Amino acid sequence: MSSRAEAKAKARQQREAAERREAQAAARKRRLALLGGVLAVAVVVIVAAVVISQSGSDEPSAEEGTAQANTLFTGIPQEGNVLGDKDAPVTIEEYVDLQCPFCQRFSTDGLPDVVNDYVKTGQAKLVLRTLTFIGADSERGARVAWAAAAQGKMFQFVENFYANQGDENTGYADEAFLKRIAEGVDGLDAQKALDGRDSAQVSSSIQASQAAANKASIDSTPTFLVGPTDGELSKIETRTLTVDDFREPIKEALAEAKG
Amino acid sequence: MTDGPLRIASLILSLLGIGVAGYLTYVHYADISPICAGGSHGCEKVQASDQSKLVGIPVALLGLLSYITLLFANWLRGELARTAAALVAVIGFGFSVYLTIESVTVINATCQWCLSSLAIMTLMAIVTVTRLVRGEDLDH
What we know:
CATH superfamily of the largest domain in chain A: Glutaredoxin
CATH class of chain B: Mainly Alpha
CATH architecture of chain B: Up-down Bundle
Radius of gyration of chain A: 31 Å
Number of helices of chain B: 5
CATH topology of chain B: de novo design (two linked rop proteins)
Helix content of chain A: 55-70%
Number of domains of chain A: 2
Largest interface: A-B, 36 and 33 residues
Mean pLDDT of chain A: 91
Structural class of chain B: mainly alpha
Number of helices of chain A: 10
Number of strands of chain B: 2
CATH architecture of the largest domain in chain A: 3-Layer(aba) Sandwich
Strand content of chain B: under 5%
Low-confidence stretches of chain A: none
Number of strands of chain A: 6
Low-confidence stretches of chain B: none
CATH topology of the largest domain in chain A: Glutaredoxin
Oligomer: heterodimer
Strand order of the largest sheet of chain B: 1-2
Structural class of chain A: alpha+beta
Shape of chain A: elongated
CATH class of the largest domain in chain A: Alpha Beta
Mean pLDDT of chain B: 87
Shape of chain B: elongated
Order of helices and strands of chain B: HHEEHHH
Largest sheet of chain B: 2 strands, antiparallel
Radius of gyration of chain B: 16 Å
Distance between the termini of chain A: 117 Å
């Protein structure tokens, strides 16, 4: 009798254990299915984000940048480090380091509109001053830029440098790089620019830029000063690095110049 | 093994992520350079890149929102919360890997803060997927 009851109890335990195992296996299967669903949804979302990120990229290629460097300033007077009509009522001073990524960003996001809306229309002139605080590649680039200034091609050279900007302080601005950038600028005698980079005039221009920056307490790039030509220039806030940062300061400077 | 240690680990990772992404979001909106060992230029370059935004929204802000979501999902109990946490973490991990590849191959610069976030999101994906798969086994 007792052995029959024991056998029954044992059978019940075995049945319950089997049911638990089955339930656990079913639950595990369901969770694995859930994981599969999670991974499938994640892949779809990630692929969509990558596609959007890639298509949203408005960064021009090096070739497009070179093309922009050669077309943006067409028809605009350029003398040394000054772009535009030298008698324009408003002056915009731009302090840059050729290795600075935000300077590069402004060159694509803001400069074209600033040039088209204000420089080409004769309302403002743009004065470029190069700083070299990031490192040796900055100075190597700046020297050729100032040598190109002697040929009226400083802005094109700087734009082309940005379009090909490399990783900071890796020594990328070597002889071959500088030659390639200079040769990419239409109308620039590249060899003459490279030969002229160590001249006293170039050194003096770089020192003058630094002195002007020190005088205006400028320690980061890009920094912009805007004001009436021959009047007092003031630093502007650069939140978007687009032409929007310039509209109000230029409007005020124009009013001041007229008044 | 209970779910407790993994849940606590996921909560700690969420808080660490909020710290890193929160700092990068602050840096973005304050228009200042992030503090990085050995100079901030790599971080600045990544921050200035096109990849630093997705449909106009700073990636740092998206990261912050993801970590906040993870904090809540990891805090709540139950299978739905564990599934949501795993989903957000796997998406975050995948997108972080993509951004890191872009930063090395296209932007030519790396940002220590972004790499920290990648490390946190990688651990988060491992922990949350483990919690999802082992789920109820750990609860009992």
